[in-house]
Amino acid sequence: MGDSGALPIILAGPILRRVEPTRLCVWIATSRAVSVTGLVYNAAATKQLGEGKNDTIAFGAALHITVVEITPTSKEKSLTSRNAPTFPVRSLLAYDLILEVVGKDGKVLGRQLLSNLTSSGGANALAYAPYSYPTFFMDDSSLNILHGSCRKAHGAGDDALACADTVLQRTASNLTHRPSALFLTGDQIYADDVHDEFIGPVSTFGRYLLGFDEHIPTLSAPVHKLDPRRRLELAATFFSPSPEEAKNQLLGFGDFAGMYLFSLNDELWKDRFTPKSEGLKGFLHALPKVRCALANVATYMIFDDHELTDDWNLSKAWEIRALRGPQGRMGKRVIAHALCAYWAFQGWGNKPEAFDATFRKTITDYFANRESDGSAFEAILLETHPWSFVAPTTPPVFFLDSRTRRAASTVRPDAPSALLNDDALQDFHSQVSMQQASSNWLIVIAQTPVFGNPDSESYLEDKGFREAAAEKYDLEMWHANRAGYYKLLRVLHAIAPHGCIILSGDVHYGFVARASVTVMGATVPFTQFTSSALKNAATGFSKFGLDVIRKKAGAIDEQGWMSAPKYTNPNVSKRIREILTVSPTVVTDAEFLEAGIMAKSETTIRNQPIRPTTPSDGYFLHTQTNIGQLVLTPKGEAILRFYGTRSANPFATYKIQVDSLLLTR
Questions:
Q1: Could you confirm whether domain 4-136 is CATH 3.40.50?
Q2: Span 473-499, pLDDT tens digits
Q3: What is the pTM assigned to this prediction?
């Protein structure tokens, strides 16, 4: 593969990350140690407005990453920060980067301007005409964002993340219609399902990036020399009990880094890998558009399970097997590698100050010592939980970490865990209380839909319980753990009195649902907006089932109690008895009648998927690859759109008043 000189200086990026009036953050990965200076200009590039500088940190001989924070140099003052200068809002801004390659002695060996690569007429265009630089803007009066999830390299369908480029290019100069942020809500890579022809190039490239053979505990062979069969055997011992669900599992940090980089830059594929499968060919074809989009819109990212493996932390039994089973040492190291890669490629840019000097030094020491001692590395990644954050949009958007802060079921070890434990819920409540005062609307990112499709979820819950197979049927929905589901709804009800919008992914189809939660006579309306998948459309039996239910929409009515009510039917099913042994709990109206519950509920819940406004006879579920757009006005009118890869126009549009109570029982 040659030496690092054969690699481009820029391995991936730039990706525009956190953007707010007092700073903007730009992520970049390079093949050499680089000092990065960021410059912000007005859109015409006639006036410099900000500057910032940061050095890359080394993850390997040919992998260096940084997030450069650029702060204003102008004298314009913020209304909220009395003395701090700010970037102008509702104005188009541009940025450039200066990359100075640094030798081992600290001397600058070369200097390169990002703008040399990003002329809007050039082959590697990262700027939208008529501009010569990547552009962005901040909107403090309304919300206009794109969101999507589930991007598998060889997944079915075209890559809908490329649609972000289409939308941004079309609206580049029109700030009334241009999205100001992009939310990627989970499964940005599929670490547990890598195509047979892809795993070799990914792992070999990862080894080259690190510059050393990578080993994980109890395994003698270097990671990059494992054949697919051995990867499957290993992953099945500590992650998934079903081997077909652990195909070509990524194990070493180099594996994860290679996958992220191949998912971000088409230039890295040249002379390294020519795909034969149609899925990978389509993925490669879309990468230039994806790269351009990510450079031109503030991007916020949160993990779901496939950043590590399917069913990550689904139950207490899963955690025991992965961390404390016979291969627990190996499982712990692989989880730490996945989280480290998530931090380096996604999490760091969400809120850089969440990762202090101790965190960063622990990471860099691990790689500087060639992974010789992983104890501190594992501890800081597995035992701290700095992953949830708030995007500084208007209104703010709250990203939940529903993977690493779960609460085990009290029923049995293999029962689905609650997706948020009590401490996580309290932290969320506190965050909202501090930042939500100026807005009537609460917007939350929950990777899995809080209000799922009732027909699909009830089918999966029933099958999973009857066969005692929570992992087989992916019982990761909030509703699968009734106590955790009810606790979240009560918190949301308390902090969102005027209305709540929940953005989700995960399920490999898109839909919109209206819901309501009534506690002691007070009703809060909810809008569930789910966009999935960017590139992993349902196929086979899953698609057949979705094609049946997408033409109708069954509502579900439920009742909840903080203390489980008594029931009078001695012959009630085992499933309902289990539901009524936990507190708090929720039952459907059908379960309520079967159990013979006499107590009046404290809470009533209704969930109803809806048809689009345009076309009015459209399906309830959207199974093609898609990316969503949410436009929210200050008056609470929400416009929700789904874009696909077959047209520049949305294929479904919904218009909703967020605080309206349209649902009746």
A1: no
A2: 889 999 999 999 999 999 999 998 889
A3: 0.96
